[in-house]
Amino acid sequence: MKRYAARHGCRPLVFTLALFGAAHCGTALGEKEGLPAVATSPSGKLWIEASDRDDKSEEWVVSAADSKLRARLGESRDAQPGSFVFSPDDRWIAATYHLGSGMASAELFRQMEGVKFAPAHDKGTIGQSLWQFYDRSTGRKGATDASREDETRGIVDFIAWSPDGARALYAVRAGERGGEGVYHWGAYYNVRGGRWEVSEYLRDYNKRAGRRWSGQFEDDPAYELVSAESVDALPAEAVMQGRLDAVDRELNGAYQKYRDGLPEKSRPSLREGQRQWLAERDHGAKAFGRFGPRDEAARREMQYRTDAEREKLKELRRKLESGE
Hints:
- The protein is an alpha+beta fold.
- It has helices at residues 14-20, 126-138, 200-206, 209-214, 237-260, 267-289, 297-322, and strands at residues 31-32, 35-40, 46-53, 56-63, 70-72, 77-78, 82-86, 92-100, 103-113, 116-119, 155-161, 167-175, 181-190, 195-197.
- The strands form three sheets. Strands 1, 2, 3, 4, 5 and 6 form a six-stranded antiparallel beta sheet that branches. Strands 7-8-9-10 form a four-stranded antiparallel beta sheet. Strands 11-12-13-14 form a four-stranded antiparallel beta sheet, sandwiched between helices.
- Strand 11 and strand 12 form a beta hairpin.
């Protein structure tokens, strides 16, 4: 694959783009109490509402038990799209904010009490902290001339929570078109220890961050960061297989519905896109499974496939809802 199609857009997934087009930046889930609900916690006990007034954006964490219990999430900001993902235990919220062309920041909020969440860092944002960690880890100052004190140097993507909720996976990308750059250099923020980490898996993946920017994939099949590695042991193989089977059934059903709605002449290209996606999914799963405890290799592959198929399913449902 020569280049990533969405290098300067929202969070990209090569396999999603190959089959269904550009990835969806938002997580809109409908409306509650008249305001858009942009995220719901895994337990269903909390949701996030968003409002845009006077060119300012605000988000509120709301209790599902009593919608009068609410607290603002972070500060008001210039109206720009935001994306929010709760941790598996509802106690953390990973937020990313679009700042402009080729610029996006990130923040991480921890639960203080009930609906009240506060930034995980007292000084600066989690995005600024990640760029500083990147500088220390690589011995270089990103791929732009912007100051490390601001967030205009590139894009910070939130990728995923680990299944145990102990790690938040982020990745940075920045550079010049046709020049030097870095594409998806990843790192974990360990919420238990309050520190950045790079695993063996990420060290291997990060070696090719420059090549990913320039699109040099002839001898290195492309795959995306999709899954975050747990600190705790993964569940039993039967549990992991059950999760994969459930998502696989949903995805197959949605795919058939999408295919049936296409003109006959468009179906061959859809099948080719599916073939490419499956190859990239399996390549990514094998790479994810190679690292970590040997007795978890099969379960790690299942985790990657499950996460990849969930992302695919989200994108496909958006396509079906919008009629694209």
